[in-house]
């Protein structure tokens, strides 16, 4: 009977253990043990430290870089400069963990886009999803995708930089790739790590890789060249932010808080080292623990303490084995459920031995002691200063951080009045005077404290009220209740200072100290809504330095910045009040003038321009300065803040196109002209691609017998929407935009090709822009055109304008010699209209001089025009050059020019510019 009862007891106990195991298995599947699993993972990471590969380098937007650049957001050109520097250092890849989904300004965006293109396909830019900002949008239903703007995306790889945050608020995992609009996009970690995984799936980052030994260099140190190629050559560069002001910080296991760029680097290192971890074996390890534990639990004749030690040994063995597996393979063995089942087995066994009540008492004692230890540690280690003050205003407890926050010494047992400022004492008194604890409303407040060195410390604090029972008093609980207040404080001086500085940078230009465009537009908006005096005229003026690009090119940006600062100092001396001058960007200053009449306004603007002109002595250089001023009058109450700046900018563009050094008022026609110019610029960029350009030819005849000697090739543009556009309108746009080089190459090939179809050879004259002539590949372009079409170089006349030869810095001799050796001839076009210098004529081997139409129009009058033409003919004869008279429209002009000795004529008298088939018909008729 005893044996049967014992067996029955063993069977019951065994069934209880099996039931516990089944419950634990169910909880494992449902994910209840996730917090324990994370704790175990974090512990293992601390024991499996690994070195980084050294192939991934972080370029850090740290506090030092923010301080030295001095403005936020940074100009996109700064990123372009860094990218060029990294390319020069021969890095392998460059990944930006920075949001480029919005535009900044055209100049900086273009500079960064050009740098990406120069990098040659090694750049990747960030894209990510975020919650929509529309009202009513929820995180679960509405998201938007932040992508790089089109200017950048064409030459760069997109990479996903989303950082998944786990249920505990920390980052444990990283994405392999994510799908956007049906297309998979690799994560930044996969790109830098060298291979990807399944789209939409995640892997666990190996936080055992030493984050503090990742190579990190400050952004400004790399930009300034302090970091050499020996540290970056062949490396994969990750550019991200660690500065606290930029708030790209995340909670992570083991390290507490890390910048997002460091997390991305650890994820990439995990892939590169084949350490992209996955959780495995939860149920299998649980089953193994049960199989090992059940025999131990059934040894009822063995002392329970020994069995407890055996259970502990099983748990330690499983964890040691899991640690070895995790260290050697990219797997995280899931031992959480196994440990839980062992703990429950131990608990059940303990309850069976010592009884439930005794165990509960011990548990309560342990919890109380652990809570006290934990709360004491939290109290002492808190970043904030914490004081506990009783109802007698005596300090009962103080954390270590309190001595760093408060200027006066803090000690337990002294009166709070000895160490707290008055405003804090007042709040403590208010809390203690409340009838009930819950009557006190806690609120965050600030206290400013003067320090002995004259500086001010800003402290943020909050006072909360509570009560406790003093068990040492022999009274009832209600009578033994003691009122306490807790005062939590922190030093926010640096935080406030940084916020003030960022607010200043948001509305001021750091170089000149003037308000920036945002601040100036706020001033205009205030003026619009204010009751301004009706007898006053308000004017917005924009001022730009003439030739600022040449100053930057010759003396550098630092001198240009000093010049802006000096000009700002002069400008404010002629303005009657503060906030009327601003630095708008693009090296432009702006001002707001309010005067009684337009006459006074003109005097004020002239005075302002005269004050800003003149010489500036900067860093040992004397810089002569002239300025252009564009201004507009404000119609009271009928403008928005942006319109006056736009109108003044239009006027400024007009005066600068006219040569600068003048003051121009905005007119509505300027806006229309600029709008048309912008349309023409846009359409002209696509004209060649759309086949809208064509060549026409104007005859060149011998003035002796009107025999057709040659033609001049001219470019014409017929747009589908705008119709025929005059060359006088679109050629200047092509030259300013640089398209003239491409157009010049095209017309050269096209004119030669069409000329080759004529029945007999004619001399072909082609205008060459100075920009085209000075291009490095100009001679090669000529040679290619001749080779491609078969046209003879001995029939080719390249017409060059006088402006090409006035800049002594241009090295033209090599190009001209190459053209002469090729067999081409040079003609001096529009002679007399440019710079009126004859010094360059004997220097260069011209075969023809073309006299401009402005002299031909009045050649028959009794005046100096005929004498000038005669002088040119004589000069040409000395140097054995032919003289071409262009713009001949009457027979009287023809006779006069023939009498003066001109050789060749061109003009409507002999024929308007016509297509190639028209020239072919002329040749056929002449034959």
From TrEMBL:
Q: What Pfam families does the annotation carry? A: CHASE2 (PF05226), EAL (PF00563), GGDEF (PF00990)
Q: Can you give the residue ranges of the GGDEF domain?
A: 536-668
Q: Does the keyword Cell cycle apply?
A: no
Keywords for this protein: Membrane, Transmembrane, Transmembrane helix
Q: Does the keyword Transmembrane helix apply?
A: yes
The residue ranges of the EAL domain are: 677-927
What are the transmembrane regions? 14-36, 285-302, 308-325, 337-356
Known Gene3D superfamilies for this protein?
Answer: 3.30.70.270, EAL domain (3.20.20.450), PAS domain (3.30.450.20)
InterPro entries membership: CHASE2 (IPR007890), Cyclic-di-GMP_PDE-like (IPR050706), EAL_dom (IPR001633), EAL_sf (IPR035919), GGDEF_dom (IPR000160), Nucleotide_cyclase (IPR029787), Rev_trsase/Diguanyl_cyclase (IPR043128)
Q: What name does this protein carry? A: EAL domain-containing protein
């Amino acid at each position: 009977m005893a044996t049967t009862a014992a067996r029955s007891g063993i069977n019951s106990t065994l069934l209880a253990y099996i039931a516990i195991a089944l419950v634990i298995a169910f909880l494992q599947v449902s994910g209840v043990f996730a917090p324990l699993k994370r704790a175990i993972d974090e512990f293992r990471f601390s024991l499996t430290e690994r070195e980084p590969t050294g192939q991934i380098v972080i370029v850090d937007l740290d506090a030092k870089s923010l301080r030295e650049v001095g403005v936020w957001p940074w100009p996109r050109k700064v990123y372009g400069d860094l990218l060029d520097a990294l390319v020069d250092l021969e890095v392998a890849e460059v990944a930006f963990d920075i949001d480029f989904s919005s535009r900044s300004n055209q100049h900086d965006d273009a500079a960064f886009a050009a740098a990406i293109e120069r990098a040659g396909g090694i750049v990747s830019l960030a894209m990510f999803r975020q919650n929509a900002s529309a009202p009513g949008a929820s995180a679960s239903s509405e998201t938007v995708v932040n992508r790089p703007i089109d200017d950048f995306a064409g030459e760069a790889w997109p990479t996903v930089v989303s950082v998944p945050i786990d249920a505990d608020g920390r980052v444990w995992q990283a994405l392999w790739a994510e799908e956007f609009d049906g297309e998979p996009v690799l994560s930044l970690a996969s790109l830098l790590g060298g291979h990807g995984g399944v789209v939409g799936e995640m892997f666990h980052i190996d936080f055992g890789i030493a984050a503090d030994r990742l190579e990190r260099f400050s952004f400004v140190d790399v930009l300034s060249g302090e970091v050499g190629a020996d540290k970056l050559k062949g490396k994969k560069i990750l550019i991200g932010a660690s500065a606290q002001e930029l708030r790209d910080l995340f909670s992570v296991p083991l390290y507490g808080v890390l910048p997002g760029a460091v997390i991305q680097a650890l994820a990439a290192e995990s892939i590169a080292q084949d350490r992209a971890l996955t959780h495995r074996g939860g149920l299998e390890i649980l089953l193994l623990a049960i199989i090992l534990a059940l025999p131990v639990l059934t040894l009822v004749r063995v002392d329970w303490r020994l069995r407890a030690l055996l259970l502990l040994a099983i748990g330690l063995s499983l964890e040691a084995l899991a640690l070895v597996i995790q260290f050697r393979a990219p797997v995280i063995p899931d031992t959480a459920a196994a440990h839980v089942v062992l703990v429950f087995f131990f608990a059940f066994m303990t309850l069976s031995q010592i009884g439930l009540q005794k165990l509960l008492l011990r548990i309560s004692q342990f919890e109380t002691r652990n809570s006290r230890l934990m709360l004491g540690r939290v109290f002492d280690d808190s970043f904030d200063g914490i004081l506990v003050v009783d109802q007698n205003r005596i300090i009962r407890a103080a954390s270590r951080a309190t001595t760093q926050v408060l200027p006066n010494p803090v000690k337990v047992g002294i009166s709070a009045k000895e160490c707290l400022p008055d405003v804090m004492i007042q709040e403590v008194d208010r809390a203690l005077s409340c009838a009930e604890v819950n009557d006190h409303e806690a609120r965050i407040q600030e206290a400013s404290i003067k320090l002995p060195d004259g500086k001010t410390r800003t402290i943020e604090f909050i006072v909360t009220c509570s009560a406790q029972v003093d068990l040492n008093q022999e009274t009832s609980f209600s009578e033994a209740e003691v009122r306490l207040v807790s005062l939590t404080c922190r030093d926010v001086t640096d935080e406030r200072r940084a916020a003030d500085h960022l607010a200043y940078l948001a509305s001021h230009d750091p170089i000149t100290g003037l308000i920036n465009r945002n601040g100036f537009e706020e001033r205009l908006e205030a003026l619009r809504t204010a009751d301004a005096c009706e007898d006053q005229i308000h004017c917005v003026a924009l001022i730009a330095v003439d030739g600022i690009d040449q100053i930057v090119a010759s003396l550098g940006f630092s001198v240009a910045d000093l010049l802006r600062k000096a000009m700002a100092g002069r400008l404010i001396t002629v303005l009657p009040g503060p906030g009327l001058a601003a630095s708008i960007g693009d090296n432009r200053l702006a001002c707001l003038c309010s005067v009684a009449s337009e006459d006074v306004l003109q005097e004020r603007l002239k005075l302002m321009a005269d004050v800003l002109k003149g010489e500036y002595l900067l860093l040992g250089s004397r810089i002569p300065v002239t300025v252009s001023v564009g201004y507009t009058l404000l119609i009271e109450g009928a403008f928005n803040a942006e319109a006056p700046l736009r109108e003044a900018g239009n006027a400024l563009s007009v005066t600068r196109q006219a040569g600068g050094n003048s003051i121009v008022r905005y007119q509505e026609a300027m806006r229309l002209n600029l709008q048309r110019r912008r349309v023409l610029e846009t359409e002209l960029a696509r004209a060649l691609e759309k086949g809208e350009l064509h060549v026409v030819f104007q005859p060149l005849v011998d003035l002796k017998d009107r025999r057709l000697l040659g033609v001049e090739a001219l470019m014409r543009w017929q747009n589908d929407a705008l119709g025929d556009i005059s060359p006088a309108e679109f050629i200047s746009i092509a030259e300013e935009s640089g398209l003239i080089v491409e157009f010049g190459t095209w017309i050269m090939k096209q004119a030669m090709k069409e000329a080759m179809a004529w029945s007999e050879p004619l001399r072909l004259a082609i205008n060459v822009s100075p920009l085209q002539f000075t291009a490095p590949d100009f001679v090669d372009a000529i040679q290619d055109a001749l080779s491609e079409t078969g046209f003879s170089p001995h029939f080719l006349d390249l017409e060059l304008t006088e402006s090409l030869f006035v800049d002594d810095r241009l090295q033209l001799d090599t190009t001209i010699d190459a053209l002469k050796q090729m067999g081409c001839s040079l003609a001096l076009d529009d002679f007399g209209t440019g710079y009126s210098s004859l010094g360059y004529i004997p220097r260069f081997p011209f075969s023809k001089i073309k006299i401009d139409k402005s002299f031909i129009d009045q050649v028959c009058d009794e005046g100096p025009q005929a004498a000038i033409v005669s002088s040119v003919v004589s000069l040409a004869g000395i140097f054995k050059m032919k003289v071409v008279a262009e713009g001949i429209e009457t027979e009287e002009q023809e006779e006069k020019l023939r009498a003066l000795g001109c050789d060749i004529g061109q003009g409507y008298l002999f024929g308007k510019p016509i297509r190639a088939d028209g020239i072919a018909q002329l040749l056929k008729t002449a034959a």
